[in-house]
Fold this sequence. Notes:
There is one protein chain. The protein is an all-alpha fold and 149 residues long. It has one domain (2-148). The chain is 75% helix and 0% strand. The protein has helices at 2-39, 43-62, 84-90, 93-119, 129-148. Helix 1 (2-39) packs across helix 3 and helix 1 runs antiparallel to helix 4 (93-119). Residues 1-7 have low confidence and may be disordered.
Amino acid sequence: MERQGNSWSIQVKLLWAxxxxxxxxAIVVNMNHAxxxxxxxxxxxxxxxxxxxxDWVEKSNQHQDGQRPVERKExxxxxxxxxxxxxxxxxxxxxxxxxxILFSTLIFAVVMYMFHGVSRSGTSGPISLEQxxxxxxxxxxxxxVRKTS
Length: 149
C-alpha cells in the first residue's frame, strides 16, 4: 500500500513540476515577445511616444503657477530621450525577467503549499456538532479511565 502512495506522490510531483515549467516558459516567451515588440517598433510609434511625453511635460510645466501645495522643478525635456518601455526592455530586461520569475515562483510555491495542505488534511470537510460532542465525550471517558488507573 505504501508503494502506491509513494507512486502517487511522484506523479503529483511531476505534475507540479510540469505546471511550474509551463508557467516559467510562458513568462519568458511573453517577455521576449514584449521586448521584440518594443525594440522593433516602427519609427512612427516611437515618434508618437516621444511627442506624448513632450506634450505631458509642457502641460505639467504650465501648471507650476505657485498656487499648488507642492512646488516642483520644471522637467527638462532633454533628459528623457526614450520612452519608459524602451528603457525597461533594453537596459533593465534581465532585472525585469528575474523579478517576474522570482515572484512567480514564490506565488507558485505558496499556492502549491496551500493546495497540499487542503488536499492532505485528515478530515474531508467540517465535522458536525454531534461528531464534535462525541469526540469530547470519548476524550472525557479516556481521561477518567487514566485517572482511575
